[in-house]
TrEMBL record:
<dbReference type="InterPro" id="IPR004606">
    <property type="entry name" value="Mop_domain"/>
</dbReference>
<dbReference type="InterPro" id="IPR003439">
    <property type="entry name" value="ABC_transporter-like_ATP-bd"/>
</dbReference>
<dbReference type="InterPro" id="IPR008995">
    <property type="entry name" value="Mo/tungstate-bd_C_term_dom"/>
</dbReference>
<keyword id="KW-0472">Membrane</keyword>
<feature type="domain" description="ABC transporter">
    <location>
        <begin position="1"/>
        <end position="237"/>
    </location>
</feature>
<keyword id="KW-0813">Transport</keyword>
<dbReference type="Pfam" id="PF00005">
    <property type="entry name" value="ABC_tran"/>
</dbReference>
<keyword id="KW-1003">Cell membrane</keyword>
<keyword id="KW-0500">Molybdenum</keyword>
<dbReference type="InterPro" id="IPR005116">
    <property type="entry name" value="Transp-assoc_OB_typ1"/>
</dbReference>
<keyword id="KW-0547">Nucleotide-binding</keyword>
<dbReference type="InterPro" id="IPR017871">
    <property type="entry name" value="ABC_transporter-like_CS"/>
</dbReference>
<keyword id="KW-1278">Translocase</keyword>
<keyword id="KW-0067">ATP-binding</keyword>
<dbReference type="InterPro" id="IPR011868">
    <property type="entry name" value="ModC_ABC_ATP-bd"/>
</dbReference>
<dbReference type="GO" id="GO:0005524">
    <property type="term" value="F:ATP binding"/>
</dbReference>
<dbReference type="InterPro" id="IPR003593">
    <property type="entry name" value="AAA+_ATPase"/>
</dbReference>
Length: 360
């Protein structure tokens, strides 16, 4: 039986092209869906949710047929056990936060075990908001309540359509670890649409990239993001890396994490040893040396090879450094590049402070 598999063949005519998709996704972790505006990301989510009645094809999720247009099968949205989180929170304005949550709980998906109410409130961080009326919540608070409400519905698949797009960057930064933690804790698979490389780098395990109604790339987030062609023209260059918590050092307020065979230090976090984590490292945080650092305050210094490089404008060079299994994107000035006489294939040491790493 194909449990944890979402398989779909979809054909949906749109104004300028057809949404034409044929995919088999292992429902494990968070799938990010990226692509330029109008390429069909929302249409894909709407087809999966059962909101597009004109779609032809088949959708099978966890061995259950949601759509088979040849056989005349079309399960309505409420029978698919899906949670849908939109850009705007869409809470009931006449109910307070608790009222919104109770309403969701009463209508929970009977095919899934209910998630413990208190655990959801705690993970989403809204315990202090329960008696508030909806109009007294900030945008970020509303979105947290919307997330909790959707979880209390006991979905077997969460679809998120740019859920952070209407929030400022600091609200996004506080909600992203919460979304990642929810996925890890409750093990609900997520399909997450986003325009933002910064969001996808923190959240997605796997990625689909769409163009004009079709999937043009599919792979792990770290494979697809940590490439020069992906980074060179974007606003912020960064790497998305996968690591595991090793141990904590409360005396120094540090946590050691393992990234491939390397041991790195970051600010202390409260995740137990063995927890998988996503590490985001801005390319400008990295310095390169030709020898291992000695007598330096910089805690992280790992050997790497320059896999490829590309000029970025007139004054910077972007390098892709191979660490073993994973690759790191690093940005240095052209002056440093010339001074070190770097070229592809060189062995270097990538150095960065513990505070330079963001761990989600
Ligand atoms: N109901 C509809 N009927 C026909 N065409 C539609 C309909 N809704 C959207 N479209 C068109 O389908 C294409 C895909 O739209 P969709 O909203 O899925 O894209 P998107 O990738 O989510 O875009 P964005 O990132 O801007 O939200 C667009 O060209 C859009 O104009």
């Amino acid at each position: 039986m194909d449990s944890n598999i979402l398989q779909f063949t979809l054909d949906l005519p749109r104004d300028y092209f057809h949404i034409s998709l044929n995919q088999r996704l292992t429902l494990d972790g968070i799938w990010g869906v990226m692509g330029s505006s109008g390429c069909g990301k929302t249409s894909l989510l709407r087809c999966l949710a059962g909101l597009e009645t004109g779609v032809q094809g088949r959708i099978i999720c966890n061995s259950r047929t949601w759509l088979d247009s040849e056989q005349g099968i079309f399960l309505p949205p409420e029978q698919r056990g899906i949670g849908y989180i939109f850009q705007e929170a869409r809470l009931f304005p006449h109910l307070n936060v608790m009222g919104n949550l109770r309403f969701a709980r009463k209508r929970a998906n009977p095919d899934q075990p209910a998630l413990p109410f208190d655990d959801v409130i705690q993970q989403v961080g809204i315990g202090h908001l329960l008696e508030r009326t909806v109009d007294k919540l900030s945008g970020g608070e509303k979105q947290r309540v919307a997330i909790a409400r959707t979880l209390l519905n006991a979905p077997s698949l969460l679809l998120m359509d740019e859920p952070l797009a209407s929030l400022d960057w600091s609200s996004r930064l506080s909600i992203m670890p919460c979304l990642k933690q929810i996925q890890r804790e409750f093990k609900i698979p997520v399909v997450f649409v986003s325009h933002s490389k910064e969001e996808v780098a923190r959240l997605a395990d796997n990625l689909l990239r769409m163009h004009q109604g079709q999937v043009i790339e599919k792979g792990t987030c770290r494979q697809l993001l940590n490439r020069l062609e992906e980074q060179v023209n974007s606003d912020q260059q960064l790497s998305a890396l996968d690591a595991t918590v090793m141990e904590h050092d409360p005396d120094y307020g540090l946590t050691a994490i393992q990234l491939d065979q390397h041991r790195l230090y970051t600010g202390q976090m409260n995740k137990p040893a063995g927890t998988p984590v996503r590490v985001v490292l801005p390319a400008s945080e990295i310095s390169l040396t030709l020898e291992p650092l000695q007598s330096s305050s910089i805690l992280n210094c790992i050997p790497a090879h320059i896999a490829s490089l590309q000029e970025q404008g007139h004054h910077h060079v972007l390098l892709r450094l191979s660490l073993g299994e994973q690759a790191l994107i690093c940005q240095i000035t052209r002056k440093s590049f010339d001074a070190l006489q770097l070229s592809a294939g060189n062995r270097v040491f990538a150095c960065f402070k513990a505070s330079g790493l963001e761990v989600v």
